[in-house]
Amino acid sequence: MTGRSTRNLYYITHLDNVPSILRHGILSHEEIQGKGLHFTAIYDVDIVSRRSHISVPDGRTFWSFANLYFQPRNPMLYRVAMERGVDRLAVVAVKTNVLARSDVMFANGNAAHRSTIIVPATQRDQFIKEIADIHSLTWWNAEDGSKRRIMAECLVHRLIEPALIDAVYVANSKVAEALQASVSRSIHVIAEPHMFFEPTKAIQVTPTLSLVVGDMFFSRMQTLTVSVNTVGIMGKGLASRAKYQFPDVYVRYQDVCRKRHLRMGVPYLYKRTKVTVFERSSVPSSVISSSTWSRLQMRAKAMRPILELSATTTTRSARSISMWLVCASTSWWVVRPAPNAMPSTPTKAMSRWSPVRLASASGPTSS
Length: 367
Description:
Elements: E1 9-14, H1 18-24, E2 26-27, H2 29-35, H3 45-51, E3 65-69, H4 75-84, E4 89-94, E5 105-107, E6 118-120, H5 124-130, H6 146-149, E7 153-157, E8 159-160, E9 165-170, H7 173-182, E10 188-191, E11 201-206, E12 209-213, E13 223-228, H8 237-245, H9 247-258, E14 268-273, E15 293-300, H10 306-314, E16 321-325, E17 328-335, E18 359-365
Parallel strand pairs: 9-10, 13-15, 13-16, 14-18
Antiparallel strand pairs: 1-4, 2-8, 3-7, 4-9, 5-6, 5-7, 11-12, 12-17, 14-15, 16-17
C-alpha cells in the first residue's frame, strides 16, 4: 500500500473464518445470522452492535452491509492485533470489481463516526479521488482527523462473492504456510509483516540486543529514542514523525526547550500517561489499561556511543528500548536489560566521554 491507487479492498477477520469465507464469501452480520453460520468475532461486541442501529442515507442499517477498508493498516487492525495477537488475524484482499456494484455505499472514514459522510455508488469516482491519499498513510492521530479518514470504507450489501477474493494476507510465513495447506491452492496466502505492524526482519545480536527492520514507531517497545535539537523545532526525520503522531510529546518538547531543561548530550525521559488503545503504545501487554504508562525518550544530538544511552536508561527500570540506527527510521536497536542487572536506584552510565545524567518529567494525560 505505498501507491495512491486502489489495488484491492480489505476485510479484517479472524484466521479461523478464512475457510468459511472462501466457501461462502464475505457476508454481512445480518446474513451470517440468517444462515446460522459459525463466525469467530474479532471486534468489540458493543461496537459492532451499535452499528446495527446506524442507518445509511437510504434507510438500510450497517448490519446489512459487509465493510471493506481501502487501507488495511489502520487503527482497527492495530487494536485487534494488540488484543488478540497477529497470529490469529487475516486480511482478505478483495478485487476492485466490487466497486462497480450499484448497491454499494462509500464512507469517507470510520462509517460509525459522527463526522463521516456516506455517499451512494453514483458518487464513486469522486469519492475515490478524495480518499486517494490514505493509501500512502503509515500512521495517524485523532487531532488532524487522520485516524478517522484512514478507516474509509466500502459498504457492500449482503454478500461479497468468493470469486471476488484476490488473496489472503497474514502476519508471518509460519501462519501463511499453515493456512495455505488448509485452503485451495488457487488462493494466494501472503505473509506481509508490515501490514500487521510487525518488523520485517530481526537479528538477535546478544541475549539483550537485537537489530530490527520495520517501523520503529510501532515497535511495541516500552521506550523509544528520538533525536532532536534544543531549539524547539521538530522539523525533519524521526522528530517530525514523533511531532505529528504523538502531539503531547511535541508539547512537552517545546516546554522543556523554553525552560532550557533539554541540554546537548543529556538524555531527557518523558513519561506518557493514559494512552488509549488506538494510539501507538510501547507496552503491548497493558496498553488497553487507562492507567498504563509508556515512555518516549527524547535526546539531544551528541557524539556519544549509542549504547551508552541504553545503559543509562536501563537504570531507570525500562523494560525495552527502541533506538534508531544511523539516522534511519526503518532500522533500530532493541535493548532489553539482562535479568538481575537493574539496580533499585538510578546510576550513571560511564564512558570514555563523561558520565551521563538522565533528566525526566511526567507528561499530560493523552486521550
